[in-house]
Amino acid sequence: MFSKENLLAALRRVEANRGAPGVDGMTTEELRPWIAQNWPSVWAELDAGTYRPAPVRRVTIPKPNGGERMLGVPRVLDRLIQQAIAQALVPVFDPHFSGASFGFRPGRSAHQAVKAGRRAVQDGNRWAVDLDLDKFFDRVNHDALMARVARRVEDKKVLKLIRRYLEAGVMADGVVSASEEGTPQGSPLSPLLSNIMLDDLDRELFKRGHRFVRYADDVMIFVRSERAAKRTLASVTAFLEDRLKLRVNKEKSKATPIWWTSLLGFGYYLSKGEVKIRVDRKAVKRLKGTVRQITSRTWGVSMAHRMDKLNKFSVGWVAYFGLSDSPGVFREIDTWVRRRLRQAQWVQWRSPKNRMRMLQRLGYEFADGEPGLSGRRRPWRTSNVRPLGIAMKNSYWETQGYKPFEASWSRQKTA
């Protein structure tokens, strides 16, 4: 676990992931020289079993669907040690995990999970049990989790160290509070521990003969009828709460037709008897929120800077959502984004005289008697009028550097 090779690999991973400092303020850039000077004393404490992790720094980030998610940011030294532990334990646990588990595992991805779900639906499972574990990372029972870790880890020093990380506490506003349950979301060890904890759920579902997909704490079970979905929801909820001591959010968990729910940002639809993958409408809504910020008419930056930000975002978005089989959503996004860009450009041109001159320079000629564009009209409404559509057509935005979502999707599909 703490061999030179494993520690160096863990150090490179922590440095690559960067991240914010913990409670001691040390950055990832400062970690390597600090380790060179101080590792012998840290190792002595680890070897003696006296090492005490620092409490994590509490950070809250907004959830896409409202509310807040609490993250725990360990100090960089503890991230290094946790990463070294995780690298040693993944080969011990991962080969025994279920084939239906896809989150935070080597060689597995969210796309594979969505494709596995599609196969289950194609095989006739048109109802879904969509399980929502209420604040899973904050509510994991330490005793239950450590019992499962101890099934494959016999070294008492390692077990003691992992337990201390679970109980390290949280610092918020300068006050440290004890951690009686949960595993900090944001630590290198947390993904592995979540899979260890939920492996019992995977085994139970497999034993019952269910088709299912799990990505970390996102769980979807595929069944053939509404009656089976409701029965499965009730029985699996009881298993999670009674056996694993977890809490199921009963308001968000549901038995539903597969077409009405989503998995990891994707949904399914039927086309000529074949199950296809679509982008979930909530993902499009989140995209529009980001694009609104980038294309805000009150953001006083150049169009080149705006376009650079937009393209960097779109490349990543299409790389993930390009799994979708439906080009229509990408086409609609392009239409809407171009209108947002026309609005921003119109506002940047400022004066009525300059606006008319720029439209003419871009190829629009006002006919005799055709009225000009009133400055009283709202920019969003103006962005959709004929002169702007002709002057700033699709080819114009491509000369400005815009990379269309639909074109990126097409290239990804044919690659």
Describe this structure in words.
- With 415 residues, the protein is of the alpha+beta class.
- It is built from 17 helices and ten strands.
- The strands form three sheets. It has a four-stranded mixed β-sheet with strand order 2-1-4-5, with no helix packed on it. It has a four-stranded antiparallel β-sheet with strand order 6-7-3-8, sandwiched between helices.
- Helix 1 (4-17) crosses helix 3 and helix 10 (281-294) packs parallel to helix 12.
- The two termini are 40 Å apart.
- 32% of the residues are buried.
Question: Topology, please?
Answer:
Layout: H1 4-17, H2 28-48, E1 56-62, E2 68-73, H3 76-93, H4 110-122, E3 127-132, H5 136-139, H6 142-149, H7 156-166, E4 170-172, E5 175-177, H8 190-207, E6 211-215, E7 218-223, H9 226-242, E8 254-257, E9 266-271, E10 274-279, H10 281-294, H11 303-321, H12 328-349, H13 352-361, H14 379-382, H15 386-391, H16 394-399, H17 405-414
Parallel strand pairs: 1-4
Antiparallel strand pairs: 1-2, 3-7, 3-8, 4-5, 6-7, 9-10
Helix pairs in contact: 1-3, 10-12, 11-17
What is the topology, as strand order, of the major beta sheet?
A: 2-1-4-5
Radius of gyration: 26 Å
Strand/helix succession: HHEEHHEHHHEEHEEHEEEHHHHHHHH
Largest sheet: 4 strands, mixed
Give the structural class. Answer: alpha+beta
> What's the overall geometry?
globular
In total, the number of strands is 10
Our estimate of the beta-strand percent is 5-15%
**Which whole number gives the mean pLDDT?**
91
Determine the N-to-C terminus distance. Answer: 40 Å
Helix content: 40-55%
Distinct helical segment count: 17
- Could you name the ranges where pLDDT drops below 50 across 5 or more consecutive residues? none
